[in-house]
């Protein structure tokens, strides 16, 4: 009897602060795995935002993602907001060459505003 491999997302992140006046580097590390309900593939796409208009984050065939990663590959800050009709402002800014990982509550959609270039990864639940 063979065990079927479990579909899962594994996250490993580490942030380190070093400085000339500190004896030891300060580090924050997060490691965890999340089992996935199905075996759908992740979706990725490059969005080139040329204006400051809010743009829905395209998640492709991943209709209700469990995790989104937004990586700003451009030279300008990227604003991120919940997709709402009242035009509320951003809750996060992703600086150039940085990324934002979001655990997405069911049914929640996001919007981004540039000008910026962002790589979107949408992972299924």
Question: What can you see in these coordinates?
Answer:
This protein is mostly beta strands and 125 residues long. The chain has a domain at 37-123: Jelly Rolls. Helices cover 0% and strands 48% of the residues. The chain is built from no helices and ten strands. The chain has a four-stranded antiparallel sheet, with no helix packed on it. Strands 4-9-6-7 form a four-stranded antiparallel sheet, with no helix packed on it. β1 (8-17) and β2 (26-35) form a beta hairpin. The chain is flat and about 50 Å long. The two termini are 27 Å apart. The model has no long low-confidence stretch (mean pLDDT 89).
The CATH C-level name of one domain is Mainly Beta
CATH architecture of one domain: Sandwich
Strand order of the largest sheet: 3-10-5-8
**Quaternary structure classification:** single chain
Output the structural class.
mainly beta
Q: What is the 3D shape?
A: flat
Strand percentage lies at: over 45%
Which terms would index this structure?
10 strands, 125 residues, mainly beta, Jelly Rolls, 4-stranded antiparallel β-sheet
Summarize the structure.
With 125 residues, the protein is mainly β. The chain has a domain of 87 residues: Jelly Rolls (Sandwich).
Set down the secondary structure blueprint.
Elements lengths: L7 E10 L8 E10 L7 E7 L5 E2 L10 E6 L5 E5 L9 E3 L4 E5 L6 E4 L2 E8 L2
Antiparallel strand pairs: 1-2, 3-10, 4-9, 5-8, 5-10, 6-7, 6-9
């Amino acid at each position: 009897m063979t065990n079927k491999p479990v579909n899962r997302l594994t996250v490993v992140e580490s942030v380190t602060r070093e400085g000339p006046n500190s004896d030891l580097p300060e580090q924050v590390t997060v490691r965890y795995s999340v089992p996935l309900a199905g075996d759908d593939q992740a979706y990725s796409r490059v969005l080139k935002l040329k204006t400051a208009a809010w743009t829905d984050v395209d998640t492709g065939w991943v209709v209700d993602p469990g995790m989104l990663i937004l990586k700003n590959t451009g030279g300008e800050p990227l604003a991120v907001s919940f997709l709402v009709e009242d035009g509320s402002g951003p809750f996060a800014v992703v600086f150039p060459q940085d990324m934002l990982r979001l655990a997405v509550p069911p049914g929640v959609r996001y919007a981004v505003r540039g000008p910026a270039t962002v790589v979107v990864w949408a992972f299924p639940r």
